[in-house]
Amino acid sequence: MRMRRKIIYGVGIFFAIWAVLIGVISFLEWRDNTKFERNMTKIDKMVEDREKELAKDTIGGNTPQETLEMFIAAVEAGDYELASKYFVAEKQGEELRILNNAPQENIYNLMNILKTASEWRSGAGSDSFIMEAKLNSKPSMFVSFIKYPSDNWKINEI
User: Residue 131 forms beta bridges with which residues?
Assistant: First the structure.
């Protein structure tokens, strides 16, 4: 009889410990999923806010070619502040610094090369575009563009 009670208690304790462990594991998974869902909600909000911010930026052309022409015109007019705004938002500050610090001869040479851009190539999607400027029939420079949510084109990189 005593042995039977010990076995029953032992089995009962085993199942009680098992139930507690399952409960703890379930709680930890629920907590992690809740944190993950909160973080995903925050990320979704940040992306939505960024999209709204980019949609307000209307500086740029209706085509990549027009954006490049506007950029060249602003640089030639000496309006580097405006010229830098034809770049994607993340690069505007750096491009303004480069334009302000570059020797005039380098800027002049760059504009002459960019004016030769004549081969247009569409990128992987309809929201990207690459232009190639040639010098003496050899590729000399690529200009990549990104279409903003406001439907204007921005220079991503020269």
Answer: 120, 143
